[in-house]
Design goal:
This protein has helices at 22-30, 41-53, 89-92, 114-117, 155-198, 218-223, 240-256, 300-335, 339-361, 373-380, 403-423, 464-476, 498-502, and strands at 58-64, 68-75, 81-83, 99-101, 124-131, 137-145, 202-207, 211-215, 260-267, 273-282, 292-298, 392-396, 432-439, 443-451, 480-486, 489-497. The protein is an alpha+beta fold.
């Protein structure tokens, strides 16, 4: 071999002196995960070709560990390892060119080596060093012969052995990168698992089926039971009164592959039951292939407090309605026998009873989420006929109305209806009122249009009714109101922010 040839690996770099000592060298070697490369198919192909190229009966990929040299790939040798003190490769790896021993039996360093005096009776050895990119010597790619070779290797064989050694290092480096990626993934998985286990909610995942395959630590902490695998396994922890309904809801969500949300009672480790909010989302929209991810959030305290608040609110609403009834009765009682205040008393009584009907409309236990303005109008305009005899017609969009906006809206429509019954369309047998509702994402437009009644004109001074309309729409609902006293009937236009009406 030409001793002037440049070092071959890596990129002409010599083994780094600080990495030739076992402490740092072994640390670098441990990062390659060589346990996973034992009898690696790619390395086996390399040693087979090396043996053929160099016409040698034995070829090895050897890595030198603290107490042994291990053969990751072998050709012509059955042993998986030998003691390090017998290693030729421990010498070869410290060089920067191919290490050649032409006749080991006469070599001062190897003549008494058990691998020379005994099996496999080494005479000729040629090893290309395997050096990491940091400069850490790791072992060698070597060929061995039982015959002395005074001439060593040919130039082509030397070049080929160096190329093959480079291929070995490329495979080892690939393995190291895989190990690094795997360790990074494992660290990420541990961090994620630690984070998921630390959250107060129960978290789970399920494979298509669904087959529940992962739960965080909270499951066992809360329930004290094994994790369910199939949907029927959940029956052990869902309250009997909730089981059938909750199971059917989740089955439907799985069938159509849509987000799921439900509330039911979860059995605790101590045998008690607590309300939970159950949420689940699919990974895609294919029911047969979707994975599911879900959480169970304890809402028992909030749920029971909401129940208590609802009972209190219902009781309060019921008492307020009774107060309206008492006040209306007192007005009627106090005005009896006093014809001079009878008209005012009747009007006041009707207004109070309208407020009572509005209050009844929004009573917590009776009201349904999403009650509409049309439903409120039906209650308030019931005195003005129904079916074929009705005089008030509501059309347009379905407009949702909230708890807080119901009272001012009830006052507005009661005032309009009362005035119409006195002076406008509702005072005539063939009179008619059309209420048109138009909703957008930002606002609600409401039109009150009277027709078929006597001619009307704008009053000289704004009375209590007009001030009440302005107060209710502008001050309480942050909207606008316009009144047009057309000859054929009053027209009122109101624009109210959607958020104000829904509250």
């Amino acid at each position: 071999m030409n001793d002037q040839s440049p070092p071959h690996w890596p990129h002409g770099k010599l083994p780094a002196p600080e990495l030739c000592q076992d402490g740092e060298r072994l640390r670098v070697l441990s990062g390659f995960g060589v346990d996973g490369l034992q009898d690696d198919p790619e390395l086996n192909q390399i040693v087979q070709f090396a043996a053929t190229l160099c016409d040698a009966p034995i070829a090895l990929v050897s890595v030198v560990e603290e107490e042994r040299q291990r053969f990751l790939a072998r050709q012509g040798l059955s042993a998986l390892e030998t003691p390090r003190e017998y290693s030729f490769c421990a010498h070869a790896m410290l060089g920067h060119r191919i290490f050649v021993v032409n006749d080991a039996a006469s070599h001062p360093d190897f003549a008494t080596n058990p691998l020379v005096t005994g099996d496999p009776h080494i005479r000729f050895y040629a090893g290309a060093p395997l050096v990491s990119v940091e400069g850490a010597p790791m072992g060698s790619l070597c060929v061995i012969d039982g015959e002395v070779r005074p001439e060593g290797l040919t130039a082509a064989q030397e070049q080929g052995l160096l190329v093959l050694a480079t291929a070995v290092m490329r495979r080892l480096e690939s393995r190291r990168q895989d190990q690094r990626s795997e360790r990074k993934l494992q660290r990420s998985h541990r961090r994620l698992r630690s984070m998921i286990d630390s959250v107060p909610d129960i978290a789970w995942s399920a494979k298509p089926g669904p087959v529940f395959d992962q739960f965080n630590a909270r499951w066992r902490e809360v329930t004290g039971t094994d994790e369910p695998r199939e949907m029927r396994d959940w029956q052990a922890v869902i309250h009997p009164d909730d089981w059938e309904v909750s199971l059917e809801k989740f089955r439907q969500a799985v069938e159509i592959c849509e987000d799921h949300e439900d509330r039911w009672r979860l059995r605790q480790a101590d045998g008690t039951w607590r309300w939970v909010l159950s949420r689940a989302v699919p990974s895609n929209d294919d029911p047969g292939r979707s994975h599911w991810f879900g959480t169970l959030t304890d809402i028992d305290d909030t749920y029971r407090e909401a129940e208590r608040q609802e009972m209190l609110a219902n009781e309060l609403a019921h008492r307020i309605k009774n107060i309206f009834t008492v006040i209306a009765g007192l007005v009627k009682l106090r005005s009896r026998g006093k014809p001079e205040v009878q008209a005012y008393a009747d009007e006041l009584e009707n207004t109070i009873r309208a407020l009572g009907r509005a209050q009844d409309f929004v009573m917590p236990l009776r009201a349904k989420k999403g009650d509409s303005l049309r439903a409120l109008l039906d209650i308030l305009t019931a005195p003005y006929g129904s079916n074929d005899d009705r005089q008030v017609y509501v059309s347009g969009d379905t407009v949702k109305i909230g708890f807080h906006s119901a009272t001012p809206m009830a006052l507005v429509f009661h005032e309009l209806a009362t005035n119409s019954a006195k002076y406008g369309a509702l005072s005539a047998a063939k009179g008619r009122v059309d209420v048109k509702l138009e909703a957008s994402s930002k606002s609600i437009r409401i039109e009150w249009v009277e027709s078929g009644g006597p001619p009307v004109s704008q009053p000289d001074n704004a009375g209590f009714g007009s001030r009440l309309l302005q107060l209710s729409i502008q001050s309480q609902l942050n909207g606008t109101i316009e009144q047009d006293w057309a000859e054929d009937g009053l027209r009122v236009r109101m624009v109210i922010p959607a958020t104000a009406l829904e509250n």
